Amino acid sequence: MNNEKLPMAQRFRGYLPVVVDIETSGFDPQRNALLEIAAVIPEMDASGRLSILETHHAHVNPFPGARLEESALAFNKIDPFHPFRIALDEKDALHKLFTPIRSAIKRNGCTRAILVGHNPAFDIGFLNAAVNRAGIKKNPFHPFSTFDTATLAGLAYGQTVLAKAAQAAGMEWNNREAHSAVYDAEQTARLFCTIVNRWAELTGAWPEPGPARQSAAAS
């Protein structure tokens, strides 16, 4: 067995950061539906620089009895019953995303994923509720710990709104594409990578080779 940790496994205490954005039919994860979910998996090169590797996405059917708030649907412009959505039930949608996430955890020698989001309490609440409804026993994500790009951007740029933080970081922002899960997740991922890489440049906090964690791929 290789006796050196991979760079990603060193950088975040064995966690793989995965950027998630969720669009819903309201604010209550127990009563409102998860309608769209995107997950962006990053990679880290040998020098420790973080970048986007792949994006996975699914439209999701409302669970039976879900409350669909008109104001939420008007905001995200989702028609849950549009015939061309090609939506999946929650269990199938989560399986579609969790399969590549588990592969990335193993590939990077990490223990599990940690959700990165912009105000992630919202996203992890809906994710955990969907996992429970689907009866999924092994959630690859930590159940409550998260990385918050609103907090990180407030520290780095003095901005907590995603659009303003992205622009402060030198990124372009398209309001017409915003509030789709893929666009918001990828923009959040770019922001996260930019802040992590800039911090490393300023502090010299690049990963150093270390002993491999034998149980890295166990969970």
Jot down its keywords.
5-stranded mixed beta sheet; 219 residues; alpha/beta
Model description:
Helices cover 38% and strands 21% of the residues. By secondary structure, it is an alpha/beta fold. It has a 5-stranded mixed beta sheet with strand order 3-2-1-4-5, with helices on both faces. α5 packs across α6 and α5 crosses α7. The two termini are 18 Å apart.
Secondary structure layout plus pairing:
Elements: H1 7-11, E1 15-24, E2 34-44, E3 50-59, H2 70-76, H3 90-107, E4 112-117, H4 120-134, E5 141-148, H5 149-157, H6 162-168, H7 181-203
Parallel strand pairs: 1-4, 4-5
Antiparallel strand pairs: 1-2, 2-3
Assign the structural class, choosing from mainly alpha, mainly beta, alpha/beta, alpha+beta, or little secondary structure. Answer: alpha/beta
Q: Could you state the order of secondary-structure elements as H and E? A: HEEEHHEHEHHH
Reading side by side through the largest sheet, how are the strands ordered? 3-2-1-4-5
Alpha carbon gyration radius: 18 Å
Largest sheet: 5 strands, mixed
Question: What percentage of the residues does DSSP assign to strands (E)?
Answer: 15-25%
Straight-line N-to-C gap = 18 Å
Q: What proportion of the residues is helical, as a percent range?
A: 25-40%
Helix run count? 7
Question: What is the averaged pLDDT score?
Answer: 92
Name the overall outline. Answer: globular
- The beta-strand count equals 5
Low-confidence stretches: 210-219
